[in-house]
Specification:
CATH architecture of the largest domain: Up-down Bundle
CATH class of the largest domain: Mainly Alpha
CATH topology of the largest domain: Glutathione S-transferase Yfyf (Class Pi), Chain A, domain 2
Largest sheet: 5 strands, antiparallel
Shape: elongated
Low-confidence stretches: 239-244
Number of domains: 2
Structural class: alpha+beta
Oligomer: single chain
Bound molecules: glutathione
Length: 409
């Protein structure tokens, strides 16, 4: 009979850590496959919440009825069932040092790595700035391991302990996605140690094929003009949004029904020539007390490379604004040529603030929002040029031709 049930997933690092420790001590655990999604039906059930109060994985339920949540507690409990285990060190100092590395891997390393690879894997929303920051923070945390493992074969003492099994398990997905060949060349100690640990019999028995990324995986924006679908449920999550939670109301719903119906404007725009018919209709019907106008420009133009990639960036931004479709209209374009291009655009937003409409997706941070005045001639020209998408822009004295773009309607 199994010692207990472990709720988790075989490819989830935190679950894996416990499974390997149990294997190392010949302790039989029954894995009950449980989503890494605290909002999933089973995870939200009263029954599971008794074992894991916030619905996360892993969680443990002993054959004797004893239950535990929190990966470190479960790992230590399971490992300590073998009175003769060497995985918990020899001395009190060893034991405390093991706890130190369990905590460091769980609280300092994994969340930062997750914030790096999860958006790249499409499991969480992508924002370049946030992902770059997460990568920097993750590498800083890993530098601590590199420095320690340059001077030590294992994390604690002269032989493998739970600290090694645990930390290596939590790194499995990172090695498969972002800790690529370059990272491995630059971090020989962590790499040597990781290889040693994942090649232990107990590790191989549970996780036979660890993957090593050749190159750090790249973010692929959603396909051009594809109607955004509801996000697919993620297989495993370090921190995951509540996919099954009831949809919150959009904050702009509170403003009530405007007299200028956005769909009517969208129809006018789609069915008529923008310059000669749609825009004259727009200015005649625009209600400055119901809507505001915004110039929305990309902040990191100097990082843009090929114009089609910049256009995909706009497509991704628009796809992730889906929740605000009822409150937004606009267009953004790529101007310039490969390796010398910018992304500029303009939107009409329900209400007088840009935040409620744009902050429904993660990309808003990548753009600047400048309010335009419908009674100002120059501002009206900006709107017309951005929406008609038929003239170049001049920025800092340099004229860039229109290359491509998207209309959000
Ligand atoms: N503090 C918990 C964190 C556990 C955790 O974040 N688990 C993730 C999977 S690795 C999870 O279940 N995420 C689902 C969610 O946040 O909805 C621990 O250390 O065990």
């Amino acid at each position: 009979m199994a010692f207990g049930k472990l709720y988790g997933l075989p490819d989830n690092g935190r679950t894996l850590a416990i499974l390997v420790a149990a294997k190392h001590n010949d302790l039989d655990l029954e894995l009950v496959k449980t989503e890494a999604n605290s909002a999933a039906t089973f995870n939200s059930s009263a029954e599971y919440r008794k074992i894991s109060p916030v619905g996360k994985i892993p969680a443990f339920e002993g054959a004797n009825g004893f239950t535990l949540s929190e990966v470190i507690a479960i790992a230590v409990y399971v490992t300590s069932q073998n009175e003769k285990t060497t995985l918990l060190g020899k001395t009190k100092q060893d034991y405390a040092s093991i706890l130190r590395w369990l905590s460091f891997a769980n609280a300092e390393v994994l969340p930062k790595l997750g914030a790096w690879y999860r958006p790249l894997m499409g499991l969480d929303g992508y924002n370049k700035k946030t992902v770059d920051e997460a990568a920097k923070n993750a590498l800083k945390a890993l530098a601590v391991l590199e420095s320690h493992l340059t001077a030590n074969t294992f994390l604690v003492g002269e032989r493998i302990t739970l600290a090694d099994i645990f930390a290596a398990s939590l790194l499995t997905r990172a090695f498969a996605t972002v800790l690529d060949k370059t990272f491995r060349q630059e971090n020989p100690a962590v790499t040597r140690w990781y290889n040693t640990i994942v090649n232990q019999d107990s590790f191989k028995a549970v996780f036979p094929e660890p993957k090593f990324a050749e190159e750090c995986i790249k973010y692929t924006p959603p396909k051009k003009e594809e109607k955004p679908k509801a996000a697919a449920p993620a297989p495993a999550a370090e921190e995951k949004p509540a996919a099954e939670a009831p949809k919150p109301k959009h904050p702009l719903e509170a403003l009530g029904k405007p007299t200028l119906i956005l769909d009517e404007w969208k129809r006018q725009f789609s069915n008529n020539d923008p310059r000669t018919e749609a825009m004259p209709w727009f200015w005649k019907n625009f209600k400055a007390d119901e809507y505001s106008l915004w110039k929305v420009d990309y902040k990191y133009n100097n990082e843009l490379k090929l114009t089609f990639m910049a256009n995909n960036l706009i497509g991704g931004f628009h796809a992730r604004l889906e929740a605000s479709r009822k409150y937004l209209f606009g267009a953004q374009s790529v101007y310039g040529v490969n390796y010398d291009c910018i992304v500029n655009g303009a939107f009409m937003v329900r209400g007088q603030e840009w935040e409620p409409a744009f902050q429904v997706g993660p990309d808003w941070e990548g753009y600047t929002y400048t309010k335009l005045d419908a009674s100002n001639e120059a501002d009206r020209k900006v709107i017309e040029d951005m929406w008609a998408q038929d003239v170049p822009v001049t920025v800092d004295g340099k004229t860039l031709e229109w290359a491509d773009g998207h209309v959000f309607k």
